[in-house]
């Protein structure tokens, strides 16, 4: 993207030399970047996390990662569209200046033809950039669908974490109750055993007393 911006700056420099080579480079690089956006968007939409596990919480986390990547790609597409829009605005401004120069130099046929060629080149560039911006708008709209879901996914993750925390607390409480119950039950068994021993001891004492 920085390289394209450099091409834009060179293209906007004043001069009447042949700009067809610069125009071709800009067109090729713009196409490459736009195709990269399309490829990235396509991969994001078809990205599947099914191989990473079926747990609901894992699925939500993976989808949240997907939304984060979509947000980053959307930011890049916005930056690219802004660079193109600024260049398009400057190009249109220069087109108006070239037309005025053409009117002033009508007595010079060669200069007039050169100006017409420049105007035609700029018109082609404007059409290509407008087309590219339109394509970026479609990509941006598609990415928005993934990004919008991010807040919902985060809420769902928070809810699941809260539920997990609640379940853990309930399990700990039940464990304490079970330990308390076991302790109470053990105490009752000890008392019962002590009573039995006292009873046996009492019977032995009475037996010895009456057998004397």
From TrEMBL:
T-SNARE coiled-coil homology domain sequence ranges: 116-178
Compartment(s): Golgi apparatus membrane
Gene Ontology molecular function, alphabetical: SNAP receptor activity; SNARE binding
Transmembrane segments: 189-210
The protein's name in its UniProt record: t-SNARE
Family per similarity comment: Belongs to the syntaxin family.
Pfam families: SNARE
SMART domains, per database record: t_SNARE
PANTHER family tied to this protein: SYNTAXIN, SYNTAXIN-16
KW Membrane (keyword) present: yes
